[in-house]
Amino acid sequence: MAGDQVSNKQVILRDFVEGFPKESDMYIATGTVRLDVPEGSTAVLVKNLYLSCDPYMRNRMSNLVGSYIESFKPGSPISGYGVCKVIDSGHPKFKKGDLVWGMTGWEEYSLITAPETLFKIEHTDVPLSYYTGLLGMAGMTAYAGFFKVCFPKKGETVFISAASGAVGQLVGQFAKLTGCYVIGSAGSKEKVDLLKNKFKFDDAFNYKEEPDLNAALKRYFPDGIDIYFENVGGKMLDAVLLNMKVHGRIAACGMISQYNLKQHEAVHNLIQIVVKQIRMEGFIVFGYYSQYPEYLEMVLPQIREGKIAYVEDISEGLESGPAALIGLFSGKNIGKQVVAVARE
Amino acid sequence: MAGDQVSNKQVILRDFVEGFPKESDMYIATGTVRLDVPEGSTAVLVKNLYLSCDPYMRNRMSNLVGSYIESFKPGSPISGYGVCKVIDSGHPKFKKGDLVWGMTGWEEYSLITAPETLFKIEHTDVPLSYYTGLLGMAGMTAYAGFFKVCFPKKGETVFISAASGAVGQLVGQFAKLTGCYVIGSAGSKEKVDLLKNKFKFDDAFNYKEEPDLNAALKRYFPDGIDIYFENVGGKMLDAVLLNMKVHGRIAACGMISQYNLKQHEAVHNLIQIVVKQIRMEGFIVFGYYSQYPEYLEMVLPQIREGKIAYVEDISEGLESGPAALIGLFSGKNIGKQVVAVARE
Ligand SMILES: NC(=O)c1ccc[n+]([C@@H]2O[C@H](COP(=O)([O-])OP(=O)(O)OC[C@H]3O[C@@H](n4cnc5c(N)ncnc54)[C@H](OP(=O)(O)O)[C@@H]3O)[C@@H](O)[C@H]2O)c1
Ligand SMILES: NC(=O)c1ccc[n+]([C@@H]2O[C@H](COP(=O)([O-])OP(=O)(O)OC[C@H]3O[C@@H](n4cnc5c(N)ncnc54)[C@H](OP(=O)(O)O)[C@@H]3O)[C@@H](O)[C@H]2O)c1
């Protein structure tokens, strides 16, 4: 197979996006690719199996200046986290047949020129797709954000927004395993049921049915919130600030409700940060990847013993990618959104 | 003198305040006081020498529910930090003639029923009034907020709002002594000159003359801000967020621009906390008083060696108290606002 020239379907960004992304902001094109790495290069050539849909990818669709990440290039395939199989390798760390996860293209085959950033997959007794989420970037985000930013203690109250998603469902379960009292918010009855019944949150509510978020939080946390795992921002953050306990902590993981807005929503209650001596801390998972082995050591046994439930929303085929990706911003995904490009 | 009944001028709160406080929200009344403590009590009876005007006192003029501090009582004297001389003591820790600082009444003489919270003044080679600020609450606030919340490093860039005030002037000088690059904002040319010439800030600007605070900060910090010492909140915070460096820290000390507003100003740029991995942390000085001896050990030699400049704005007589206090909210004070009730 290596050395052959084959066709290569790709998801191409049409142009920079403003406002809410649409399916038509991307299109499918078919090019060709040689299934080997150029002579003398240290690249690897991979076959993409599963691609991860992540909210931050929206930012890369904008024309970014001076950001921590680079814009996608209009006319080129977009990229993101994925699980891949090595077809050919010029890099001593990787050989044909290896399974890896990391940054790859939204296409059938990718030439990865900086393979040092890839993680080799050593444990295959769990579904491979898990390495797009639970055992990949989203898992590390939940782990770092909850344990390394919030320093949770047994008995503390934890609130999680976008709680049924890739990151949220894991934070909630890590919090339960820590002995915390955990409540999540999500955008549909089905998701709320999932939180209560599958992920064993202590309680959950549908934020879209709460006209007064402050009142809702007061009802669910009469004594206040010790830890807020922030995934959405805007109005929810403003309401949470009014309900934090003294010395509360907010892990600022993301603010998905703001990503598509030209003018970000107003937050009015920051004085609470002073009055309640709150620590609000932003973090980016990249800085924590050195702790990935430590994370695996914790989480793999929990998965094998059935202590962690994990819900994925797998959409079939690269062609389904654009719809799956933009679905994140209307809450279409139930659990971790994955695109299956190929099964092996 | 002890045991005598004498007249006692007091500053009385007329009624709870809404919006900007006015001089007429307080009035002067004259009662009487016995200059000894009740038989068997552990109270102390003090003569008030200097009273401290502090922005947080505005909050106590409101009808507070469930706050970290109590409301003042309409019809009763207000209270605050002060420097006092013990006239009579039922407490083993204090004796007649001792000098103390801590919570006292805005009146000539006060009966302090919980004297455990008072600090005994051991060093009198510095002006006594300093214990209302540099060697009292404001000093501890600057010390704790800068060193224990921000963890500054040599070479970092520091921005301070309300920089010429009681807390700000000290934070700036601590930052210079730490080897930081320090810029402050203040509300008049006179204050800006003070920052540059007296407190030796690297630069300073008048925020009232900057129609675009974001542009001003970009000019003064082309490479961004490592540490923001937040005294004012609102628009300034919003602009600062756009100019923080990655891994920047914001010590949320106070938000004086918001204390008199019914609806707090909107802040729109909190996404920067995620993107730049900023830590914003509120703190209240009360939690740090156990480190007061450590602070004195650091700062007293610096004062004696002339390494710390300190500007006070002393208004004469208890009658001048209401005007001095409300002056904080229009920036009338140049440096630490003190009311001198008696010199000894
Ligand atoms: N800091 C980091 O390193 C890092 C890493 C990974 C992810 N993140 C952030 O973590 C958050 C969750 O990411 P994820 O991968 O776990 O995504 P996800 O939760 O699986 O999917 C996104 C979910 O966000 C919710 N949502 C969308 N628009 C919303 C709005 N306007 N208001 C409220 N909720 C909205 C939807 O759920 P509902 O149906 O419940 O509304 C949607 O299903 C995002 O903010 C993301 O950017 C940060
Ligand atoms: N967390 C704590 O434990 C703690 C302890 C002490 C103080 N604090 C806080 O620290 C801050 C400074 O206190 P301080 O005692 O040092 O007071 P200060 O700076 O000596 O006096 C207040 C100053 O605030 C400025 N100001 C007033 N209204 C303003 C507005 N609308 N916008 C911008 N600036 C305004 C004025 O200076 P300009 O002329 O420059 O405008 C005024 O001189 C306050 O927010 C206070 O509440 C917190």
TrEMBL record, chains A, B:
Entry's Gene Ontology BP terms: response to oxidative stress
Enzyme Commission number: 1.3.1.74
Cleaved signal peptide residues: none
Catalytic activity: an n-alkanal + NAD(+) = an alk-2-enal + NADH + H(+); an n-alkanal + NADP(+) = an alk-2-enal + NADPH + H(+)
Record-annotated Enoyl reductase (ER) domain positions: 66-339
The entry's keywords: NADP, Oxidoreductase
One MF term in the entry's GO annotations: 2-alkenal reductase [NAD(P)H] activity
Pfam (any one): ADH_N_2
Gene3D superfamilies in the record: Medium-chain alcohol dehydrogenases, catalytic domain, NAD(P)-binding Rossmann-like Domain
UniProt subunit comment: Homodimer.
PANTHER family found in the cross-reference section: PROSTAGLANDIN REDUCTASE, PROSTAGLANDIN REDUCTASE 1
Family to which the UniProt record says this protein belongs: Belongs to the NADP-dependent oxidoreductase L4BD family.
Protein name: 2-alkenal reductase [NAD(P)(+)]
Organism: Punica granatum
Taxonomic lineage of the native organism: Eukaryota, Viridiplantae, Streptophyta, Embryophyta, Tracheophyta
